[in-house]
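Re: beginner question about structure tokens

> Can someone show what the tokenized structure looks like for a real chain? I only ever see the sequence side.

Sure, here's an example I had lying around. Input first:
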Amino acid sequence: MSKDAHPSKQKFNWQPNGKLILLVLCLFPLLMFLGFWQLERAVEKQGIVDEFTVNQQAAPAGIEALAGDDNLQYRTALLVGVLDADRRVILDNRVKLGRPGYEILEVLSIEGFEPKILVNRGWVPAALDRDVLPDVPSVLGQVELRGAMYRTLGGYRLDDGIGVITQWPARVGWISSDRAAVLFAEEFYPYQLRLEAASPGALTTGWVTVAVQPAKHTGYAVQWFAMAAVLLLMTVIANSNLTDWLKSKREN
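And the corresponding structure tokens:
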């Protein structure tokens, strides 16, 4: 038998399937987009982690630091003032350790400092009856509070339909310093204070800096890129005689 008896196995042939190629042209860009999107998320989360690390290592900020233009995100602060327990905000839908609850926020007034500061005292569990609001002990008189400054990073916010609050305590779906200015009809400092566990008035504290670590986003990106590579390989195999051609090359 001559060497040319099976030319299809000795020569690589491309025999495209139009419908299959069209499907791949739709899926491949999507997989690549998802991979690069995860890489962008990794860079974004790494920036947050780096900012947290740097500002947590800085000296605690006092009232004088609040008047400057420094980046105070995640920076420890020591502030002396009076908490207003009569106007308390109950932040709804805060889950901790798998249990539903609330975060309790109050207004801090500091002598000689005009803007109010929103103070997050921490988390409390919710009662089975949603009509029963948590009973939280008040912090009386002037106190020194220790915590981390925090500026809301955005994200999806469900409109709870609440404007200026007239009845206290008030349960809301989301809060930021800008929204506090609307709810309380007063001027608020751009950062809120999240109390540390050892601070007066602290409840159950501890906030996650990033929900997903940068390395995990990078891992997701690798998975999407790997799927794109496998898709291309399977496309070539399905639209050609690649398998037979490689087998023939090995035999020769």
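Each token stands for a local structural state, so reading them left to right follows the chain. The chain has two domains: 13-41+213-251, 75-195.
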